[in-house]
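Progress note, sequence design subtask.
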């Protein structure tokens, strides 16, 4: 994309279907890219990552539920995002959901905006080993509408969630992280 094309895109604003899909006046469109394999867009808003397809459907994934978003660009300005959503499976425990791949014909500012927004939700994270191998990721995230940070555990291997010893160790590590934040 030429510099002139980038400037035109920035000042032109999002396409009408993207604007129409974001109905809440408090939600702002930050960046977007046309999907290469279907008629629609991948859109970064102030609240999350949206897929807008023809007909107006707009699936949204809040920023604090993005476990990973990997960008692989191509020389023509396009590329693909591989996004791994997280879902709460029980209080304090999140599980990785199946990854979703979005192929874009023109990414524009989308990769940088997605990276910044996901990074802004993560306040701290640390990996801890589990007995017998594997581990957990302890993550403190900023969640919109909540004053306190939210700590969660994500198991490296979902099967470890069913192991009582691994679950106890994970609960203990989560309790230690929460206790370390409390004023003494």
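Output:
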């Amino acid at each position: 994309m030429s510099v002139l094309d980038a400037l035109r895109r920035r000042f032109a604003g999002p396409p009408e279907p993207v604007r129409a899909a974001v109905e809440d006046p408090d939600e702002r469109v930050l960046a977007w890219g046309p999907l290469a394999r279907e008629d629609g867009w991948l859109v970064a808003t102030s609240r999350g990552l949206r897929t807008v397809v023809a007909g107006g459907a707009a699936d949204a994934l809040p920023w604090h539920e993005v476990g990973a978003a990997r960008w692989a660009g191509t020389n023509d300005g396009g590329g693909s995002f591989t996004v791994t959503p997280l879902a709460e499976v029980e209080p304090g425990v999140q599980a990785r959901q199946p990854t979703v791949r979005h192929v874009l014909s023109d990414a524009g500012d989308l990769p940088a905006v997605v990276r910044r927004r996901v990074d802004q939700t993560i306040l701290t994270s640390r990996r801890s080993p589990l007995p017998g191998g594997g581990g957990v990721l302890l993550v403190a995230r900023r969640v919109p509408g909540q004053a306190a940070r939210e700590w969660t555990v994500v198991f490296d291997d979902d099967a470890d969630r069913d192991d009582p010893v691994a679950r106890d160790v994970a609960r203990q590590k989560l309790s230690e992280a929460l206790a370390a934040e409390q004023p003494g």
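DSSP finds four helices and eleven strands in the chain. Work on this subtask will continue into the next period as scheduled.
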